[in-house]
Amino acid sequence: MGNHGEDLIQRAAKDLINSGCAIALTGAGISTESGIPDFRGPSGVWTKDPEAERRAYRSYQAFREDPKGWWEERLSSPVSLLGDLEKAMPNPGHLALAELERMGILKWVITQNIDGLHEKAGSKNVLEYHGCAFKLRCVSCGSRFKRDEFDLEKLKTENQLPPRCPKCGGVIKSDTVAFGEPIPSDIAHQSLAEAWRCDLMLICGTSAVVYPFANLPITAREKRIEKEKATETGLHVVEKIPAVIIIEINAEPTPLTYEKISDYLIQGKTGEILPKIVEEVKKSRKG
Ligand code: APR
What pTM was computed for the model? Predict the structure, then answer.
């Protein structure tokens, strides 16, 4: 990243310091430096195996048709497409966002990632928009459980699959949200509320092609505030100006860049750029 990137890093630090309610939206790109592949980047899971993506698109339908068969198949091939998520550790990008939360600047992280690395990095306010690989969820009452609250192997050998919700008896599935599956309503509502409430949105490591997540920046872009402006004739007029600064940090431009939903793109690695932004914020605060 050349000098141009450094100027944008200072600009992002200034924007963060001047913000009153900053949030971060993240995608698989922020976890690649933790050894977890993304999906659509050059060595992404879907890029390398398009058939795996086609299977993923069928998964939710298969679950609804035959939850018992879905669980038996899932337990017979427990290796996640994303590798061993339990061993993955947060990288400087996750740690930088946790630091911004501790500084009182970042209010929420809304992540598409199911790897739990934002919490592992110390972020407290995290909305897992596509769920979490280490949790299970009842599709009837929405209750979530840690995966180890159920002995899935035992349920399988005793022909007791699918797991049943201890609260309502509903069918339980992985908390991970599959293509075509509704975003759990509690997360969907709060994510939209935070996107509408924020005055700065950092968008880190996402290709921004999957909906409804990609609607969040578009929603924020529509937010306007009224500002009085004096005209040459001394008249005061009220104009509506954009109320949110949207900053992309990504290895490549995305539709948000091309469609000018984001104000600017800092192109490069989140694990390098985010810590530099935090350093600039700290320097400015000391100064
Ligand atoms: N730093 C910055 N950007 C990166 C890095 C990095 N270290 N590594 C990869 N990227 C960029 C890629 O260039 C790409 O633009 O991050 C983006 C990741 O995009 P995707 O692979 O599409 O991941 P994501 O946007 O999170 O996918 C959304 O699709 O498959 C579903 O449910 C899955 O949550 C996922 C959703």
Answer: 0.96
